[in-house]
Amino acid sequence: MALSKAREIRELSDETLDKEILEAKRKLFDLRFQKATRQLENRNHEFQHLKHRLAQLMTVERERQLAQVSPGAGEAVATPES
Q: What family is this protein classified in (predicted)?
């Protein structure tokens, strides 16, 4: 399984991105379940690939969330005056 490029992930639509995140989480859960029930045969690289892909997907999702927030909103935190 080849690692995907962040550029390719950024081209996905919001709906597709959400589906990909759910699919990656489900696959990771299934692998963990197989490992716990000793049904997994030396596929540790799949854990690494899935975790990497999930991190990429969630990073792009977070970038989009931050892009929707208007610039300057939340940058300066008001401190109470004494």
A: Belongs to the universal ribosomal protein uL29 family.
